[in-house]
Design brief:
509 residues, two-stranded antiparallel ribbon, 18 helices, transmembrane, metal-binding
Amino acid sequence: MVDTALIGWSRAQFALTACYHWVFVPLTLGLAVIMAVMETIYVVKKDEFWKRTAKFWQKIFGINFAVGIATGIILEFEFGTNWSNYSWFVGDIFGAPLAIEGIFAFFMEATFVAVMFFGWNKVGRKFHLAATWLTGIGASISALWILVANGWMQHPVGMEFNPDTVRHEMVDFWAVVSNPVAISKFFHSVLSGWMTGSVFVIGISCWYLLKKREIRFAKASIRVASAVGIIGTLAVMFTGDSSALHVAKYQPMKLAAAEGLEDGGPRAPFSIVPGVEIPGMLSILATHDIDGFVPGINDLLDGYVAPDGTEVLSAEAKKERGDMALAAFKAYRENRETDPAAAAEAKKVLEENVEYFGYGYIDDKEELVPDVWLVYWPFRIMVGLGCFLLLLMILVLWFERKNRIEKMRWLQWVSLCSIPLVYMAGQAGWIVAEVGRQPWAIQDLLPVKAAVSSLSKGAVMTTFFIFVAVFTLFLVIEIRIMINAVRKGPETGAEDGAAAIEGTQAGDR
């Protein structure tokens, strides 16, 4: 029996690392696009002001990029240290996209980021612009492979269980890559990074306006960031709709928990807050049909018959089939060398019930219900803040285009104070995605209590608090360096003029 405290501390450590990592990733994704757009304007207009603007945000990008790498590396190592059973059970599948991310995407980022930072006066304008765009594209490709791996955990496809190696092995790489859950998650996550980067740039730019410094720089940055952010946020909402369809289809318990829906049915209501509902809206979101049937928590635990006649097994029935799968697996392993006939029969039973394999580790059906309030409220925080930030970016862009943003001090303060809010929205989204999947490390295949490593609780607790200290130090250092860079402002001076002449000559070659 696995110590529940060990499971809790292992989950807490992984959640801590993931949350800190996601502080850095979305800003990297968002700034990559914004600074690339700014440099594109520079190359097209040949206006040194835009070069200066792009270089400033590239400096902020570089600070954030460097710290984000450290947390990402630690996160991947934790799969081997804290979740070794998971790594053994599905390492052939989960490891493939992470390996591709490391070999291809990260290599691409590392190559072009060097050109982007150190090549301003050493390569032509167009080549440097290409390096800037490719740095951003590399960051997005890196996110793609990580989210392919995460999407597979949400909806496992393209594999078969091998009882001889006790591993799930990939049989269809394309099915893993084209997993609809992974594709939706990729666009939703990357585009939310656009929103994060945009709100960050707008907030910092408004600080300059409040200080009555770098007015042209601040207004130009607001113009670009607002446009990128509005496009990104609208796209986030669109991809959120497709994500809702996938969650309803592949992870109905997550959807029921996110809505606090105990008893489902057709015309299921959408809960704005407890006691305030929109009739039929959840059915529209989950099925694109107001009469669509959406199961609730009790339906999923007790079993039900879908409107199309499909019988969905109860938790007890799934547990029984999971027990059969585990017993058959054990019988196969015991008889494969001594009694081939018995082994073949056991293997047949295993194959018939392998999709319920993970349920054999479940002791009580209540384990299948995630912490409802820890999914319900973060979902509303994510949606509510997303709508607020979209409105904010529209207002900021409107007043900037009307040349009135300098006078709107209240809007400048709201924009500056909204920087932490966009991070809250992103973190809330990941809480919904990951807590809503519990108790599964891999949906329906492997619960977290079977995935955890055999470690001492004390060792995990110790490293947890070490990571708290180290990651907090990283964050404090990054914030301090960023504040110093912002206070210093964009580069100015005679050296910029010389660099501009050299860059122009190089660009003409």
